[in-house]
């Protein structure tokens, strides 16, 4: 599926490398309850995963202009208050190890802010695998192509030399907007039918399929 003609592999984080969708949903719903905001449904929260927090709030809580108090509560719930497990998906370490050994550049483009991605990179012990990471508070958020354009510039590559791997339509639309290849994963936040709308080169059911393993 992959070749060194596309030497840069960019991963989304939530729902692609880490099984955190359930925790995001639960933490956002608890945040809404605690702040006496309308409680979004599971599907409503899943639909915004991958977007920057500001955009998430605009979609989930329209008419609320002050986002700082929501962010404070949500970060508490996600990091400390909510105990929903959010492990790294099985096979992720093997895949990242294999790709690094083969000579690929590896990067992360995430809807998390820098604070959030640094925390989970350290806690998951995956930081060592990535040559560069970019967060939603360092560039325009998905599906705008700026995160991918920034990564391409850093590595001195053109669009056709990168593959974006993600679980949401926001990831795959960002790849389309940037002119890069993409691979969707079926086990994350968005349904396969939605991923297909953005013409990925493949949709996989297990991250290990990236290296030719079931």
TrEMBL record:
GO CC field: cytosol
TM stretches of this protein: none
Keyword Hydrolase among record annotations: yes
Keywords: Hydrolase
Domain of life the protein comes from: Bacteria
GO BP term (any one): DNA repair
Keyword Hydrolase: yes
Pfam families: HAD_2
InterPro entries: HAD-like_hydrolase_sf, HAD-like_sf, HAD-SF_hydro_IA, HAD-SF_hydro_IIIA, HAD_2, HAD_sf, PGP-like_dom2
SUPFAM superfamilies for the chain: HAD-like
A GO term for molecular function: phosphoglycolate phosphatase activity
Name of the protein in question: HAD-superfamily hydrolase, subfamily IA, variant 3
Lineage summary: Bacteria, Pseudomonadati, Pseudomonadota, Gammaproteobacteria, Kangiellales
């Amino acid at each position: 599926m992959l070749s060194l003609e596309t030497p840069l592999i960019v991963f989304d984080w939530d729902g692609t490398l880490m099984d955190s969708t359930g925790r995001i949903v639960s933490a956002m719903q608890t945040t809404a309850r605690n702040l006496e905001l309308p409680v979004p449904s599971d599907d409503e929260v899943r639909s915004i995963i991958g977007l920057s927090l500001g955009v998430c709030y605009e979609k989930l809580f329209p008419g609320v202009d002050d986002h700082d108090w929501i962010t404070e509560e949500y970060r508490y719930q996600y990091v400390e208050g909510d105990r929903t497990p959010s492990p790294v998906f099985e096979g992720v370490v093997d895949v990242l190890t294999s790709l690094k050994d083969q000579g690929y550049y590896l990067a992360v483009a995430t809807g998390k802010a820098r604070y959030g991605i640094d925390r989970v990179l350290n806690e998951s012990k995956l930081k060592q695998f990535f040559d560069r990471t970019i967060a939603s508070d360092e560039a325009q958020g998905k599906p705008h192509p700026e995160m991918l354009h920034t990564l391409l510039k850093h590595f001195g590559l053109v669009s056709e030399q990168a593959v974006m791997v993600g679980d949401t339509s926001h990831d795959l639309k960002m790849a389309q907007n940037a002119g890069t290849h993409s691979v969707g994963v079926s086990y994350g936040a968005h349904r396969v039918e939605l991923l297909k709308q953005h013409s990925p080169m493949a949709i996989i059911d297990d991250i290990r399929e990236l290296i030719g393993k079931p």
